[in-house]
């Protein structure tokens, strides 16, 4: 039985003190909530991991990236073992902002996925198409390539540590959400690809999140779809109230 997850992606926002305060508020709200139907994760900047970890008791922690090397002369990089040593359980990989602004390719992400899993981290792996790809109809192929080239070399056991986030780039931070039917179509497609590669049981067990202008007002309709198992939340994760409005949307 797969689990529902709501994960925040703070991106490059908050100072350490602000981040600790936000994490504290989210953690307190999650602790106080009864009958929550999802795991809650906050994805925070590298600088915040250790301090935020100290205030989390009911919420899991993610980094937003990790290096494509384990250690060595890579000034400014942060490796998967370093992330794991902070106590974080997850790393977000393949976000469209990393693909677009930092030239992350499917091949590079394959390496990052391997290193993250070797370090004992679970991976929230992002995929999704641009507006042009949505319009020209190539989006199924784009998503298939992203998954095939970065994930489908993994063993079935390793796939148990992968969460997939479908994030149409045209919906990220734009206020424009995919309709629940558009999102469900892609989530079902992704689950079908996993079934072809790994069999029906692993496909059933894989958590697939939606990301792109998800907020308390649209989360219930999205999360009601059979193949949408929660959300990866950008803007709305920066305030405890709006994030909790999504966490409690199931
Ligand atoms: C994201 O960046 O992962 C995201 C979904 O952002 P937003 O919720 O702000 O669209």
Characterization of this structure:
- 44% of the residues lie in helices and 15% in strands.
- It contains twelve helices and eight strands.
- It has an eight-stranded parallel β-sheet with strand order 7-6-5-4-3-2-1-8.
- β3, α3 and β4 form a beta-alpha-beta unit.
- The chain is α/β, with parallel strands linked by helices and 250 residues long.
- Bound molecules: phosphoenolpyruvate.
Quote the distance from N terminus to C terminus.
16 Å
Query: What count of helical segments does DSSP give?
Result: 12
The biggest beta sheet reads: 8 strands, parallel
List unreliable stretches of 5+ residues: none
Radius of gyration: 17 Å
Which key phrases capture this entry?
250 residues, 8 strands, binds phosphoenolpyruvate, 8-stranded parallel β-sheet, 12 helices
What's the topology here?
Elements (H helix, E strand, L loop, with lengths): L4 E5 L6 H17 L6 E6 L4 H7 L4 E4 L16 H6 L4 E4 L2 H6 L4 H13 L3 E6 L3 H6 L2 H12 L5 H4 L2 E5 L13 H19 L1 H6 L2 E3 L8 H5 L6 E4 L6 H8 L3
Parallel strand pairs: 1-2, 1-8, 2-3, 3-4, 4-5, 5-6, 6-7
This protein binds phosphoenolpyruvate (PEP).
Phosphoenolpyruvate binds next to strand 8.
């Amino acid at each position: 039985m797969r689990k529902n997850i709501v994960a925040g992606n703070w991106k490059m926002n908050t100072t350490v003190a602000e981040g600790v305060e936000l994490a504290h508020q989210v953690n307190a709200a999650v602790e106080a909530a009864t009958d929550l139907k999802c795991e809650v994760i906050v994805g925070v900047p590298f600088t915040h991991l250790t301090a935020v970890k100290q205030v989390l008791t009911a919420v899991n922690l993610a980094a937003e990236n990790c290096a494509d090397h384990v250690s060595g002369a890579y000034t400014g990089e942060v490796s998967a073992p370093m992330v794991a040593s902070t106590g974080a359980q997850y790393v977000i990989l393949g976000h469209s902002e990393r693909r677009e602004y930092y030239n992350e390719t499917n091949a590079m992400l394959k390496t990052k996925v391997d290193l993250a899993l070797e370090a004992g981290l679970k991976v929230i792996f992002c995929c999704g198409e641009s507006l042009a790809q949505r319009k020209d109809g190539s989006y199924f192929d784009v998503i298939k390539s992203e998954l095939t080239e970065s994930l489908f070399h993994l063993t079935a056991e390793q796939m148990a540590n992968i969460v997939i986030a479908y994030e149409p780039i045209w919906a990220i931070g734009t206020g424009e959400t995919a309709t629940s039917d558009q999102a469900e179509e892609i989530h079902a497609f992704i689950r079908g690809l996993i079934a072809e590669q790994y069999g029906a049981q692993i496909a059933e067990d894989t958590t697939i999140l939606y990301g792109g202008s998800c907020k308390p007002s649209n989360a219930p309709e999205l999360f009601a779809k059979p193949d949408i198992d929660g959300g990866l939340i950008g803007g709305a994760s920066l305030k405890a109230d709006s994030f909790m409005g999504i966490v409690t949307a199931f």
